[in-house]
Amino acid sequence: MKYKRILLKLSGEALMGERQYGIDPNRLAEYAHEIKQITNKGVEVAIVIGGGNIFRGVAGASKGMDRVQADHMGMLATVINGLALQSALEDAEIPTRLQSAIKINEVAEPFIKRRALRHLEKGRVVIFGGGTGNPYFTTDSAAVLRAIEINADVILKGTRVDGIYTSDPEKNADATKFDFISFDDVLRKGLKVMDTTAFTLSQENELPIIVFDMNKAGNLFKVVSGESVGTRVNL
Q1: pLDDT of res. 169
Q2: Closest by CA position to 123, among listed 5, 1, 2
Q3: Closest Cα partner for 91 from 99, 83, 80, 100?
Q4: SS3 state at 218
Q5: Which of 6, 16, 116, 217 is most buried, by the most CB atoms less than 10 A from its CB?
Q6: Distance CA 159, CA 53 (A)
Q7: What is the C-alpha to C-alpha distance for residues 148 and 151, in angstroms, rounded to an integer?
Q8: In sequence order, what are the residues at sequence separation of 6 or more whose Cβ sits closer than 8 angstroms to the Cβ of residue 200?
């Protein structure tokens, strides 16, 4: 396999499957199957999940809610998603640990870098919940931060589209896909890969990002194998 240790970023919306809200158990089972394919090859996997299928802090704040309080609700939503994914992974007989940036000791370990690294070395999938533990930071920022802390080889952003396009391919049929693109070109063209804070942090730490369609069976294995799937963002 091309990558030994990866950070997989999943959106909360990805867990909805065909539903309009919440968590689809079938989608969770599909993801667990995809992840097991690479853990069986010895790849060390860490995961960060968003919470948008349950609650999004920015949306709450836009409706008059205090932003800090809304973001804390969003952090709790990511822990709920983390628990759901943990259950699906364990049903697939994959050893798993859930670590949270906010203290919820009854359901998750606190995030401790050395403990997370030890879990990965022992072949356990580590799910990072609670974002960064701070308001005003997205789960994109949490994904990049955790990837840097655990010395991941790459960030894999699993989405419902098969890469980065010149514009939204769901709205513009003439949009063209990039196979490779530089960090500078993404910023210059104003393309939305991650929020600016997360993207800049990844660039400064020379951590490549691959955006790919997580919902297509076998894609995760192909990406980790080094096949040309999705779009790779390099220096």
Answers
A1: 85
A2: 5
A3: 83
A4: coil
A5: 6
A6: 14
A7: 5
A8: none
Tell which residue, 85, 29, 79, has the closest CA to residue 54: 79
Alpha-helical segments (H) within the chain? 25-39, 57-62, 67-91, 113-121, 139-149, 183-189, 196-204, 219-225
Give the SS3 label for residue 112. Answer: coil
Residues 5, 156 contacting (CB under 8 angstroms):
no
Predicted TM-score of the model (pTM)? 0.94
> What pLDDT is attached to residue 57?
78
Residue 192: exposure state from Cβ atoms within 10 A (0-12, 13-18, ≥19):
exposed
b/e map 169-188, b = 16+ CB within 10 Å:
beeeeeeeebeebebeebee
CA 15 from chain centre, in angstroms, equals: 12
Q: How far does CA 234 lie from the centroid of its chain?
A: 18
Are the CB atoms for 148 and 207 separated by under 8 Å?
Answer: yes
In tens, the pLDDT along 60-116 reads: 888 888 999 999 999 999 999 999 999 999 999 999 999 999 999 999 999 999 999
Read off the amino acid at residue 115.
R
Residue with tokens 């393309």: 191
- Check whether 23 has a pLDDT greater than 90: yes
